[in-house]
Write a structure and sequence with these properties.
The complex is a heterodimer of chains A (about 290) and B (about 600).
Chain A: H1 27-41, E1 49-53, E2 68-71, H2 77-87, E3 92-98, H3 99-105, H4 107-116, E4 121-126, E5 129-130, E6 136-137, H5 161-168, E7 172-177, H6 181-193, E8 198-203, H7 215-221, E9 222-224, H8 236-243, E10 250-257, H9 286-289
Parallel strand pairs in A: 1-2, 1-3, 3-4, 4-8, 7-8, 9-10
Antiparallel strand pairs in A: 5-6, 7-10
Helix pairs in contact in A: 1-6, 3-4, 4-5, 5-8
Chain B: E1 10-17, H1 22-35, E2 39-45, E3 54-62, E4 73-78, H2 81-87, E5 91-99, E6 115-118, H3 121-127, H4 135-146, H5 152-162, H6 167-186, E7 207-210, H7 211-222, E8 226-229, H8 236-244, H9 246-249, E9 252-255, H10 259-271, E10 276-281, H11 282-298, E11 302-308, H12 325-330, E12 338-341, H13 346-363, E13 366-372, H14 373-377, E14 379-382, H15 400-404, E15 435-437, H16 451-472, H17 475-478, E16 479-482, E17 489-494, H18 498-510, E18 515-520, E19 522-524, H19 528-537, E20 541-545, H20 551-560, E21 566-569, H21 578-588
Parallel strand pairs in B: 1-4, 4-5, 5-6, 8-9, 8-10, 10-11, 11-13, 12-13, 17-18, 17-20, 20-21
Antiparallel strand pairs in B: 1-3, 2-3, 2-14, 7-14, 12-19, 16-18
Classes of the chains: A alpha/beta (about 290), B alpha/beta (about 600).
The structure holds thiamine diphosphate and magnesium ion.
């Protein structure tokens, strides 16, 4: 599939004009803006970008950015997105979905996608609640968090997404904040440019349902890893230590980055060209049936 | 007195513990017979265990087509006492038992009217300084001597089987097999066995292949580029066969973390424009169900091979059943069209898979190829697959230049059209940016919950099945009448029961009974008119299925209004065998 490259003149060209049902002040707006800016800054051809989401408030994103989009099932963002990369590895594949989507129902896929180190970027809109279904507890809700499904407070401890993706084998693990769009944009750009599975957990206030982890709450706690003297994202020990940090202080930035082979690197079938460009005419099954005589 | 017409074939059965190499032995025997020009059908039974437990492979051979296994054994190769205990009762008159009386604790060899061929398998193996497992090779040689067949067929198969390991290994295997062959002949052990199968003058070239492998090979021929699956009996060999040929045919076969991922990945890859599939059994299909609907609403073509085994839940993992017909027909919430193919034998498994890829692409629809343990894991000799005239039909999939000719911003992925099928651009193409969504959407893919749009979209998707019937699927492809056009009894069935029915049908008509067989080849869309016509003209009908609820009977009643009174159902996990169907035919007439 060869086509002429399209260059955007301004970021507004990525607008679809579709209406959006996010609440005013929702962190999803910040993430959407950062993502659009990142695509624009990197001069990506929107026709070569595949944006895949699951189901949740944030998963409406593909309807709001003029790139190829797939709005899949709750929790299945990653299987769909990773297979898309395998089918056409020339595309820039970006997966986006909620914390419930990725760390709850889709957790198994998350771990395995990280381990396989597909060259895709995975942005998690982590608002620590189930937004679309009206505010229930999510796997990243803090211990003791009260919601309609946990009226007495969450019993289990919250999961640590960065520690999970990192130990599973992701080669780029970062965390951003929806309230700092410029910084988030840079993280997304770095994630897209990184060759391998780039996991970007985005702390995102839910103004309607999450009355605890608000913009203000985050602003008081967040600090940048890039401002920490001596912090080395190639160090697994440093990264793991930071991945555990939550409470008084919450780090954002690139926690971990490693150069390693991607899943696609090891596939001779796509060494020359993407699967989608292979001809399927006149396939000779002679060699395949030889062993049956 | 047994019925000679049914038992005109010769059946060889090897039995032993799991881990004894029973499957490999069965394959080698089947291939050796096939190379001699005989037709073969190989059926294996094994429990859900890796070691221990009783395993058998039955190879039925004949000079004409063999459609099924037999309930009678002509040559029993017993590798342990258990095999004798379990199978002596199924021996045909004058049959031969090959066993090692030095190793087995067995004395009662006199009174059964059988020929007992005692051969010291273990001792011969030891004397030749061969590994213990190679007693199978001795026994293979002995089997061919008993059948009075030339040793060259055995050496020939050993040669190709071991060629990759070098001439020395080949020679050694041939030597070991020859020892078994010679032992039988020089002691004239099988002199009493009279059941010779005439060999053809010149052996036609044929392959011995399972239904599962036929599906895998069909998919490869069709241009499969991506498969994602998770192992589950009886479908596992489909993914393994595709994986084996992955590098050569440039196909990515991904063993996923579960069947949910398998299905979602297959859809993701297909959406990007490559031919893609998954394969599973009922349990895995249960996990795929939600995503099946995603393919439905995003109008993504996809081929799913589904091999059933008895449920519910884990059920009888290594046995056979047709209990998932209704499940695949209705699985997933909501209403959306799908095609359900019902192959009845190895050749149809291959042909229907090829067809499935074309129809899925053309109608941007899911195709399910429904098979089962009996068909999927049994082997049959068939003419070598080639399908050289096969042309992949990608329907309304656009090329990059088609897309480039479209005015940017005007493309509608889900455009309303007369036959319900819309032009398909895939991501990466110029000028056609769109979103595919599992939420209800407008023609351009954007979300719309409005009533007018909803009705149009439901109708659009439904229209595709109407168009499929009008344009592509003809009644003579959807049903087949076997036997005389006009008969006193019409058997109605589908899927893997075809084999045993054809055997019984042949026997019945040879005996002068008047029976035919309506084979239903599609569950969806259902060939209502064609089935109605046959059933309304039939004098007497008999429904045969391997399930307890007569599911196809229910479908027929729903779609045609015809209730089939007589049913013959088997649901113990075992396939029907021809003799019991013949008995039922006689009882029904
Ligand atoms: C299989 C399945 N189970 C449940 C739902 C209902 N559901 C839709 S979105 C959602 C949770 C959304 O939470 P999250 O993924 O965090 O996204 P958010 O809305 O917070 O952005 C649930 C449970 C569904 N759509 N599918
Ligand atoms: Mg959420």
């Amino acid at each position: 599939m060869s086509k002429t490259l399209k260059i955007l003149n301004n970021v507004q060209e990525l607008d679809t004009g579709s209406s959006c049902n996010w609440c005013p002040g929702c962190g999803d707006f910040g993430i959407l803006l950062a993502l659009k800016q990142a695509i624009f800054d990197l001069k990506l051809d929107p026709e070569s970008v595949m944006l895949v989401s699951g189901i949740g408030c944030g998963s409406q994103a593909p309807h709001l950015i003029k790139v190829y989009g797939f709005h899949s099932l709750h929790g299945r963002t990653l299987p769909v997105a990773t297979a898309m990369k395998l089918a056409n590895n020339k595309m820039t594949v970006i997966a986006i979905g909620g914390d419930g989507d990725g760390y709850g129902i889709g957790m198994g896929h998350f771990i395995h996608a990280a381990r396989r180190n597909f060259d895709i970027t995975y942005i998690v809109q982590n608002n620590q609640v189930y937004g679309l279904t009206k505010g229930q507890t999510s796997p990243t809700s803090e211990h003791g968090y009260k919601s309609k499904t946990t009226p007495e407070g969450v019993i289990e401890p919250m999961i640590r997404p960065i520690a999970l993706s990192m130990t599973a084998g992701a080669s780029f693990c970062a965390r951003g904040f929806a309230g700092d769009i410029m910084y988030l944009k840079e993280l997304i750009k770095a994630g897209i440019q990184h060759k391998g599975f780039s996991h970007i957990d985005v702390l995102q206030p839910c103004v309607t349902f999450n009355k605890i982890n608000t913009y203000q709450w985050y602003q008081q706690r967040i600090y940048k890893l890039s401002d920490v003297e001596g912090y080395d994202p190639s160090s697994r020990t440093m990264a793991l230590e930071k991945a555990e940090e939550w409470g008084e202080k919450i780090p954002v930035g690139v926690y971990y980055k490693e150069d390693r082979w991607t899943y696609e690197d090891k596939l001779p079938m796509i060494a020359e060209k993407p699967l989608v460009d292979h001809s399927i005419e006149n396939i000779d099954i002679g060699p395949a049936i030889e062993s049956y005589f | 007195m047994e019925n000679l017409a049914v038992y005109k074939h010769l059946s060889w059965l090897v039995g032993g513990e799991a881990g004894y190499g029973i499957t490999t032995m069965g394959q080698m025997f089947a291939r050796a017979c096939s190379r001699a020009g005989l037709n073969v059908f190989g059926y294996a039974e094994y429990p859900s265990l890796i070691r221990g437990g009783h395993n058998t492979a039955m190879i039925t051979v004949g000079s004409d087509k063999v459609h099924a296994h037999s309930n009678k054994i002509d040559i029993l190769l017993a590798l342990n006492e258990d095999t004798l205990n379990k199978h002596l009762g199924s021996m045909s008159e004058g049959g031969v038992v090959i066993y090692d009386d030095e190793s087995l604790n067995w004395d009662e060899t006199s009174n059964l009217g059988l020929t007992w061929v005692s051969i010291p398998l273990a001792r011969i193996t030891k004397e030749l300084e061969a590994q213990k497992i190679m007693r199978n090779t001795v026994a293979l040689g002995a089997s061919f001597a008993v059948m009075g067949m030339d040793f060259s067929f055995v050496s020939n198969v050993l040669e190709t089987t071991f060629a990759r390991k070098g001439q020395e290994v080949v020679d050694f295997n041939v030597k070991v097999a020859k020892a078994g062959y010679d032992h039988v002949n020089s002691n004239d052990l099988a002199a009493n066995f009279k059941k010779a199968i005439p060999l053809p003058e010149s052996a036609k070239k044929q392959i011995v292949v399972s239904g599962n492998d036929a599906i895998a090979l069909g998919a490869i021929k069709a241009g499969l580029k991506f498969m994602s699956a998770y192992p589950m009996t009886p479908a596992t060999s489909i993914m393994q066969t595709v994986a084996k040929h992955g590098v050569k045919y440039e196909i990515i076969m991904k063993h996923t973390e579960d069947e949910i991922a398998a299905m979602n990945m297959a859809i993701g890859a297909s959406h990007m424009g490559v031919r893609s599939m998954t394969a599973t059994a009922g349990g895995g299909f249960s996990l795929m169900v939600e995503a099946l609907g995603m393919a439905g609403i995003t109008e993504t073509p996809l081929v799913v091979a589904m091999g059933t085994r008895p449920g519910p839940s884990t059920g009888l993992p290594t046995w056979t059943d047709q209990g998932d017909l209704r499940f695949v027909m209705h699985a997933s919430q909501g209403e959306f069209p799908r095609i359900v193919f019902l192959p009845g034998d190895v050749q149809e498994s291959f042909d229907m898979t090829l067809r499935a890829f074309n129809l899925s692409d053309k109608y941007q629809m899911i195709s399910i190829v429904l098979t089962d343990k009996y068909l999927g894991e049994s082997v049959q000799s068939v003419e070598p697959f080639a399908a050289t005239d096969y042309v992949p039909d990608r329907g309304l999939l656009m090329s990059t230049s088609d897309a480039a000719a479209i005015e940017d911003g005007s493309y509608k992925r889900f455009e309303f059209t007369e036959n319900g099928v819309s032009r398909r651009a895939v991501p990466g193409m110029p000028n056609c940016i769109y979103v595919a969504s599992t939420d209800e959407h407008r023609e351009d893919g954007d979300l719309d919950e409005g009533s007018e749009n909803r009705i149009k979209m439901v109708d659009k998707r439904a229209q595709k099945i109407v168009s499929l019937l009008n344009e592509s699927l003809k009644p003579d492809e959807m049903i087949e009448i076997h036997g005389p056009a006009d008969a006193n009894l019409t058997i109605v069935s589908w899927g893997s029961t075809k084999g045993p029915i054809l055997e019984a049908l042949d026997a019945a008509n040879t005996e002068g009974l008047s029976v035919n067989f309506l084979q239903i080849k599609f569950a969806l869309p259902f060939p209502s008119d064609a089935v109605s016509e046959v059933l309304n003209a039939a004098k007497k009908t008999l429904l045969i299925e391997t399930n307890s609820e007569a599911q196809m009977g229910g479908v027929i009643r729903e779609k045609t209004g015809v209730k089939i009174e007589n049913t013959f159902l088997r649901y113990d996990g075992r396939p029907f065998h021809p003799a019991q169907i013949l008995d039922k035919i006689k009882e029904s007439l």
